[in-house]
Amino acid sequence: MNSRAQQLQAFDRLLNIMDDLRAQCPWDKKQTLESLRHLTIEETYELGDAILNNDLNEVKKELGDLLLHIVFYAKIGSETQDFDIADVCNEICEKLIHRHPHIYGDVQVKDEEEVKQNWEKLKLKEGKKSVLEGVPQGLPALVKASRIQDKAKGVGFDWEEPHQVWDKVQEELSELQAEVAEGNHQRIEAEFGDVLFSMINYARFLNVNPEDALERTNKKFIKRFQYLESKAAEIGKPLSEMTLAEMDVFWNEAKKL
What we know:
This protein is mainly alpha-helical.
């Protein structure tokens, strides 16, 4: 692995390249904080895919793409004299030192859970009115639900045992079925949301990341469905003309693979 001096040299190289691109490249010169935003989100999802696929070479590449975006934002900030990369680094350093008094102070903690609880308490002392303020409004709903529950847990608002959460899931399912029987779409939607929220809560107690679990299922479905499509192509019969029984034969083959 590279030494600390080599790591700093590589980061300095990236900063110099960013200076060159911003000064000379027509595309890079036009970019703003707003124009980069959607690209950054896309790069973050690509990193997430690489992590789920356990493709470490791709993880390395995607981390580079994200690092480029961070350096790009800092460069734009330096041009408006609002902040530069040193300010960005120092800001997170100060936050980490302040939020880890068990490392940089005299606070004692016994486990990871106490660290998380102290983290939320410190954020409230910093002036936040709610522990939920740290949950970005733009997060996808599933990820947001998970983060909301994590935040609430950090201040002790949580179930005590996994079976209590599972009981809640069963309760919400019953309420959903009752509303389905009534046929009121608005209430069905509300109860369906409650079922999803309670399932995400249960995932926490199983130490399962619900976003990762669902994405792995998505990937599994895609792989099996594409196998089905390839087999249909082999026999020269479009899926739209196949019966479910015929499709099930290939689907079961895909499951075995």
